[in-house]
Task: structure prediction
Amino acid sequence: MSCPYARELNGEDPNAERCLGDFKGINYTNYLQLHGILGSQNCITSAHDEHLFIVVHQAYELWFKQMIYEIDSVRALFNEEEVNEHKMLEIIKRMQRVVLILKLCVDQFVILETMTPLDFMEFRDYLSPASGFQSFQFRLLENKLGLKSESRVRYKQETYKKVFGDDPEILEAIKQSEEEPSLQVLLSRWLERTPGLEEEGFNFWLKYKIAVDTTQEEKRREAEAEKVEHMKTHMMAQYKRRQELFDSIFDVKVHNALVARGERRLSHRGLQGALMISFYRENPRFNQPHQLLNLLMDVDSLITKWRYNHVMMVQRMIGSQLLGTGGSSGYQYLRSTLSDRYKVFIDLFNLSTFLLPRNSVPPLDRQMKSRLSTMGEPDSEERRGKVVWSRPRSEPGFVSSDSPCPMDNVDNGEEKVSSDSDLEKSLEDSIERSCEASM
Ligand code: HEM
Result:
C-alpha cells in the first residue's frame, strides 16, 4: 500500500529523483493539522511539569474522542433492522479497539505520576476552577455507554451538568447523549431477540426454571439429610440464599424493582437472552455474542480501573483532605464513583450467580442445535448467516421491511423437522403443559 500522503507529481518527469518536499497537495503536517495540535500546549506558569500535565490530558481527550466515535458506530449498527454475523464481526472488532484504548488509558497515569506532588504544587493553584469534572467527553462516554443520571453520585447536591452552564453546544451534546438509546439499552433490546427464547419454540426460560427447581430441590434434600448440625445449618442457609436469588430473576416484579433501584439494568427478557448465551456459548451462533458480552464486561472493568488509578493518583498528589479544583470533596468524591452503580453492564457480571452445573443445563433439542449451528443446507438464508437477530416490528424505531425474517421461517416450521424432533417436541410440549399446570 502506498503512503496516504503521497501524490502524483503534476506533469513532472516521473523518473526524476524526488524528495518528499516536491509532492504537491496534502502533506503529513497539514493532514494531521499538527500546527493546531502542537500549538495547543499553552502553559500558564513557568513550572516545568505543567507541559506534561497538559499533554497527558490532551492525549486522554483524544482517546476519549476515538472511543466515542467507535461506540457511536456500534450503537448505529445495533440500531439497524438486522444484526447479522458480518455486522457482529465489525461490532466485536470495534469494541475490542475500545477495550485496548481503555487499557492504554488505565496505564497512562504512570507517566503523569513521574510528576511529584511538590512539582504539582507549583502550578495547581493556578488551575482553579478548571477540573477534569468539566471533561464533557468523559460525560458523553459515560452516557453513551449507558450510565444513568440517577446512578451518579451527586456533586455538591448539583447535577453533573451544572459545570457546563454557559456552553449551549456542550449542553446540547450531553442532552442528546442522555436521550438517545445508549449501548446498554440497545444491547438489552438485542438480547431480547436471542433465538430460543420464544415461548412457542424452544422456550429456554421455562426449561431453565425446571432445571433450577430440580437442582434446588436436590440441594434442599442434601441439606436436610446432613447429620452434622452446623453443616446442616450452613447448607440450609446457602440453599435459602440461592432460592432468594433465583426468585429474584423468575419474578418479573422483583426484577423490575431492582431495575428501578439501579441494581439491574437489562430488561427481564434481555437477562434471559444473556443467560442463554452464557449456557450455550460453545454453539457456533453464540460464539460471537458471548465474545461481545465479555468485551462489554471488560469495558466496565477497565473504566472502574481507570477511576481507581485516577483516584490513587489524586490521593498521591493532593492527599485525601483537600478539595478538588472543581470544588468537589476531591479524593472522597472520586472514591464514591468506584461503586457498582457506575457499572452499566452489571447484569453480565452477575450472570455467574445464576449458572447451573453443566449436567443440569437443559439440553438443546435438534431444532435448536441446528439453529445455532453454522452448517446446514447451503441455500438457507439463515445458514449463510444473512440474518440472526432481527428487530421485531413492535420495537421503537423499527424500520419496516417487507422481507420476512428467516428466523420466522424456522419457527413457522418451514425448516424440515425430522420424525425424531417431532417426538422430542411432543414430549417437551407435554412436560411444558404439566409444568404450567403446577406453576
Ligand atoms: C495531577 C493529576 C490530577 C489530579 C490531582 C486530579 C484531580 C481530580 C479531582 C480532585 C477531581 C474531582 C473533581 C474536582 O473537584 O475537581 C477530578 C475529576 C476528574 N478528573 Fe482528574 N485529576 C488529575 C488528572 C486527571 C487526568 C490526567 C485526567 C484525564 C482526562 C483526569 C480526568 C478527570 C475526570 C474525567 C474527572 C471527573 C470524574 C468523575 O466525576 O467521575 N484527571 N480530578
